[in-house]
Design goal:
Length: about 210
C-alpha cells in the first residue's frame, strides 16, 4: 500500500510503502470493540464507595419492642430501610479492569490502523520538526493541510517544539509511537504518522 509523504509546510517529500499486514487487513469490528472496552474499563478509577449497615455509626439496640407497636418488627436503626441507615448493595472500591490477551490487543491495533487506512484517514508526514514552539504558526500549517481533528504519532521521542505548539490546539493529540492505542485512533478523524512512526510500527509487528 503506497502513501505519499508530505511535510508540515505542505510540500511533497516522496512516498512510502505501508505493510498490508498492518494497514491492509479487513477490519474486524468485534476486535476493535473489545479493545476499546478494555481500555475504558482499565482507566476507570473504581473509587466510588457507600457505607453498608455494618459501617454505620449507630446503635445496634432494638429500636422498639417486638410486639404491640402495630408496625413491622425492626431490630436495628442501621438497616437500609431507615433514613441514615446503611446502603444495600452499594458500590465499593474495586478495579474495573478485565483480562484481554496480549495477542488480541496487538491484533486489535492492526485492525484499527487498517480501518483508518481504509477510510482514507491516514496521512504520512516526513517529520514534525519546528524551529520554535509557535502555536499560531502551527495552526496556519494545519489549516493548509486540513488538520482539524487529528492524532499525531511521532517516533520514540516527540519533537518538543511541535508538542509545545500543539498542546493548546483543540482536538489535536500528540503521542510517541509507544503510546499509540485503538481508542485515540478512533476518536480522531485523521491519524498522522511520521516516517519514524511508520518504521517503528513495521518493526514492532514484524
Amino acid at each position: 500500500m503506497k502513501f505519499d509523504i508530505t511535510t508540515l509546510e505542505g510540500a511533497s517529500a516522496g512516498s512510502v510503502e505501508l505493510s498490508d499486514e498492518i494497514f491492509g487487513l479487513e477490519p474486524r469490528e468485534d476486535l476493535i470493540q473489545r479493545m476499546v472496552l478494555w481500555q475504558l474499563a482499565k482507566r476507570q478509577a473504581g473509587t466510588r464507595k457507600t457505607k453498608g449497615r455494618s459501617e454505620i455509626n449507630r446503635t445496634g439496640k432494638k429500636i422498639y419492642k417486638q410486639k404491640g407497636s402495630g408496625g413491622a418488627r425492626h431490630g436495628s436503626a442501621r438497616a437500609p430501610l431507615f433514613r441514615g441507615g446503611g446502603r444495600s448493595h452499594g458500590p465499593v472500591v474495586r478495579s474495573h479492569a478485565h483480562e484481554l490477551p496480549k495477542k488480541v490487543r496487538a491484533l486489535a491495533l492492526r485492525h484499527a490502523l487498517s480501518a483508518k487506512a481504509r477510510d482514507g484517514g491516514i496521512v504520512v508526514i516526513e517529520n514534525t520538526a519546528m524551529a520554535e514552539p509557535k502555536t499560531k504558526v502551527l495552526i496556519e500549517r494545519f489549516g493548509k493541510l486540513g488538520f482539524v481533528n487529528a492524532l499525531f504519532i511521532d517516533g520514540a521521542q516527540v519533537e518538543m517544539n511541535f508538542a509545545l505548539a500543539a498542546r493548546n490546539i483543540p482536538n489535536i493529540d500528540v503521542l510517541p509511537v509507544q503510546g499509540i492505542n485503538v481508542y485515540d485512533i478512533l476518536r480522531r478523524k485523521k491519524l498522522v504518522l511520521t516516517k519514524a512512526a511508520v518504521e517503528a510500527l513495521e518493526a514492532r509487528f514484524k
